[in-house]
Design brief:
The chain is mostly helical. It contains eight helices and no strands. The chain binds fe (ii) ion (FE2).
């Protein structure tokens, strides 16, 4: 029988791992949180969309999409990115607060962005970088509002994609706004957000181009360049904090 260290927080799974692993594997196999019917494929004949379709305001003049019929995929994806950028702005607000809290423990809680990117000549402090990234997310939000209006849509109406995205982002917002989470845990969440952001803008640019909106596609590709930088920075910061701070309470 193994001796249990004093003041140990070991659980039974550590003391006797095989049964615990078997139990977890079994749970994963049999756990069905909701009915199979509920997670089945969406059937437009049988179910409602998660939100209203992206229609157009009546006073915007000639629009490029009809106000009836199914939602256009471009407007839905624009609404989706709009919801994402709204959440992104809020997430950077929270990350700035989290960074300032970490600074009370360690003044250099994050290195300058230029030191983790491998290139770039930005002479920003970490908080200046965070505030710039936050401002860019807000710029992207504004750009999307303009694009939706230009296509005859209404940026205040929640598209199905926007609804799903808002739900998905709510978990990340909870992580960032939880006073118990560390800076590293928040950066981990931000890496996931920025990865998704990059994929989303890349797809949106392709979709705009294939929809004949070449001007919008060019603007979206310019945004993608900024998002690639965002990902590079938060990824570098995460690695820096995790690798340089072998202290569980901080990481
Ligand atoms: Fe971003």
């Amino acid at each position: 029988m193994r001796a249990i260290p004093q003041q140990s927080s070991l659980t039974g799974a550590v003391l006797s791992p095989s049964p615990a692993i078997d139990a977890m594997a079994g749970h994963a196999e049999v756990a069905v949180p909701v009915s199979a019917a509920a997670v089945g494929l969406f059937d437009p004949q049988e179910a409602d969309l998660l939100a209203s379709r992206p229609g157009r305001p009546a006073l915007l003049g000639e629009a490029k999409v009809p106000n009836d019929g199914p939602p256009t995929i471009l407007l839905d994806k624009l609404g989706e990115r709009l919801a994402f950028e709204r959440a992104g702005t809020r997430l950077y607000d929270a990350l700035i607060l989290k960074y300032r809290a970490a600074q009370r423990v360690s003044a250099d809680a994050l290195p300058p962005a230029r030191s983790v990117m491998g290139s770039g000549a930005l002479l920003e402090t970490p908080v200046e970088t965070l505030e710039r990234l936050r401002a860019e997310e807000l710029d992207h939000f504004t750009l999307l509002c303009r694009a939706i209006v230009r296509l005859g849509g209404d940026p205040t109406r929640q598209t199905p994609g926007a609804n799903v995205t808002a739900r998905a982002c709510s978990g990340f917002v909870q992580v960032l706004e939880d006073s118990c989470t560390t800076l590293a845990q928040c950066l981990n969440a931000m890496v996931a957000i920025e990865l998704a952001d990059n994929v989303g803008w890349e797809l949106l640019a392709r979709l705009a181009d294939e929809s004949g909106e070449s001007d919008l596609a060019r603007e979206f590709l310019a945004v993608l360049l900024q998002e690639e930088e965002h990902l590079s920075i938060v990824k570098g910061w995460l690695a820096s904090v995790v690798l340089d701070t072998p202290n569980l309470s901080v990481v």
